[in-house]
Amino acid sequence: MAQRYARALYDLASEQGNLSDVLGEVKALRAAITESDDLRKFLADARMDIRQGRTVSNVLMSKLGFGDVLRRFVGVIADNRRLPDLASILDGVLALDSALRGEVVAEVRSAQPLTDTQRSQLQARLAEAGYSRVSMTERTDAALLGGMTVRIGSTLFDTSIAGRLTRLQNAMKGAA
C-alpha cells in the first residue's frame, strides 16, 4: 500500500513540474522523522482521530516550511489514517526516484552513525562490487553491537558483530 501512495505523490509532483522541489522536501521530512522521537511517536499513535491528525500534520508541514503539494499529500495521508505508514511512503518515493534514474538503493544499518570517511569508503567498496550508482539510506541500530549491514535489493552484506555471533552460534550447534 505504501508503494501506491508513493507512486501517487511522485506522479503528482512530476505532472506539476516541481518534482525536484518535492523530492527535496520528502528527504527533509524523512530526516525529520528519523531524528525526532516525538514525531515518530506522534505518527505511530493509533488513538489519534482523523481531525486531530489532520490539524497537527498541517501545523507541522507549515512550521517546517513545506510546499503545497507535500502539505496536501500528508493531509490526505492523515485523512486516510495512514500516518503510521508515512515514513515507509516517503522511503517509497525516494526509492522510486532512484529506480527511475537507474540507481540502486542500499539500506545501511550501523551500530554507530557513519562518518564521512566511512560513507565514502563504503561507496567505493560498493562500486568495486558492481554497484556504481548507489543511493544510501542510513539507520542506526545499537542491536548490531558493532559493524554494519548493507541490503541492496534481496542481497544482504552483514559485517555486524551481532551477525558474526549468530553465525558462530550456528556453527557451534552444527559441530555439536
UniProtKB/TrEMBL annotation:
Signal peptide residue numbers: none
Coiled-coil spans in chain: none
UniProt GO MF annotations: proton-transporting ATP synthase activity, rotational mechanism
Keyword Cell cycle: no
PANTHER family found in the cross-reference section: ATP SYNTHASE DELTA CHAIN
Chain's role: This protein is part of the stalk that links CF(0) to CF(1). It either transmits conformational changes from CF(0) to CF(1) or is implicated in proton conduction. F(1)F(0) ATP synthase produces ATP from ADP in the presence of a proton or sodium gradient. F-type ATPases consist of two structural domains, F(1) containing the extramembraneous catalytic core and F(0) containing the membrane proton channel, linked together by a central stalk and a peripheral stalk. During catalysis, ATP synthesis in the catalytic domain of F(1) is coupled via a rotary mechanism of the central stalk subunits to proton translocation.
Protein name: ATP synthase subunit delta
